[in-house]
Design goal:
- The chain is α+β, with helices and mostly antiparallel strands.
- It has one domain: Sortase (Sortase, Chain: A).
- The protein has helices spanning 3-50, 95-98, 162-166, and strands at residues 56-59, 64-69, 72-80, 85-90, 103-106, 114-117, 136-141, 146-158, 172-177, 183-195.
- Strands 1, 2, 3, 4, 5, 6, 7, 8, 9 and 10 form a ten-stranded mixed β-sheet that branches.
- The chain is elongated.
- The N and C termini lie far apart (75 Å).
Length: 196
Amino acid sequence: MNKIGKVFIGIGGCLILVSSLMLIYGNYEEVEAGVKASNVLSVMKDSINKNMQTSVKTDVVVQMPTIRIGEYDYIGTIIIPRLNLELPVMAEYDYDRLKIAPARYYGSIRTNDLIICAHSYRTHFKYLSSLEQGDKIIITDVNGNNYIYEVLEIEVLSSDDVLEMINNEFDLTLYTCTEDGIDRVTVRCNRVSDVV
């Protein structure tokens, strides 16, 4: 084998090693996010069940009551029965928070324009595209009030189509990245019932 062949084999081996390490890290990050969300959910459910009003504050910007768990505020939980999914929902969105749980991207339950986003982790919103019209989604606020929504449509939006994401006639929007990370799987819902 000549020198050029050995160089290409060495480069190929390095690339395989790097891609393996990236895959391992991605899987670790996804599992870690699931554990963090589960831990927060457990604390949040205890707080909601005890109706700890002293821990609840109303944020004028969020226009929803929030509860502080650790260093972050949460607006409640989301349940998606078809996906067998129950997760806490953070009050504010940023990239680091999304590594823990879904987050409020925009709006409020009270103004019927709530938008929640999450990473496409298996433990978060990876399977949003498998939802169907008529599926139910339940949001529980930190006071224990349940809001039931019905899926009306599922679409894919460009990642830079922020105005179309926000300016809509739906009460609830959920979104996550497509598998290639380029576009956004977007689920549009309207409220069908409130259970206090």
